[in-house]
Amino acid sequence: MWASIIYHFRESHLLARIALVAFLLSLPFFIFMNASWVVSNPEIATIQDIFHTHFMGDSVIPAFLLTMYCAFVRYSPEERVRVKSLQGVYTYITASTAVSAGIALCTTLLTQIALWGRELPRITSTDVFFAGLQVFMMLETVGMVVFILTCLRLPIEMVTAFFVTFYMLAEWILSTWIEWVYRTVFYFTLLKSSQGLLFDAVLPFLGFMALTSLISGTLWTKIERGVE
């Protein structure tokens, strides 16, 4: 499985990999820029001043989407016959979980480094940890929506381009025009406190993952059987 993922990553379009490197490099840039403001305003700054929707939409989510695009395993009709049933679903969810966890861990560690030794009365290490957890859940949910669309026979290139563009413009357009859509697409990012995180985030996340896994598995099975 991992050999197939690595192979498709190496064979992905060069421009996509260049864009991916640019977005990955933007992660520490955004974090340290946001942290500098937080350090300058310790009495009013909160963890949301680092992990805000602008950071997620312009850096974190595009980096995740481009990584998943480059690593996306494309099965030919002949390969679908040879692989195990639902192998494509298992492969995608495994890769998505690994990439989401990796990006969430990197953002958490970079934030801890940027705030190291600073006296911030409204930001603790626990807040940073829970912010990283919210990043993980946000990326996983976006990844599953993307996968369902590809199971509907939409090209991964088109889906990735749409979501990268959508999230980069979402804060600018939706936050002032259609606020409920804005709050929905950035649901995990906009949670204000770690208190109640189990009921406000973790349980909805687990339910969403179970539902989307079932939907993607059903669609994948139909593709295998040639059902339109």
UniProtKB/TrEMBL annotation:
Keyword Membrane appears in the UniProt entry: yes
Stretches that traverse the bilayer: 14-39, 59-77, 89-116, 128-152, 159-178, 198-220
Key words of the record: Membrane, Transmembrane, Transmembrane helix
Transmembrane helix in keyword set: yes
Protein name as it appears in the record: Beta-carotene 15,15'-monooxygenase
Species, as recorded: Alloscardovia macacae
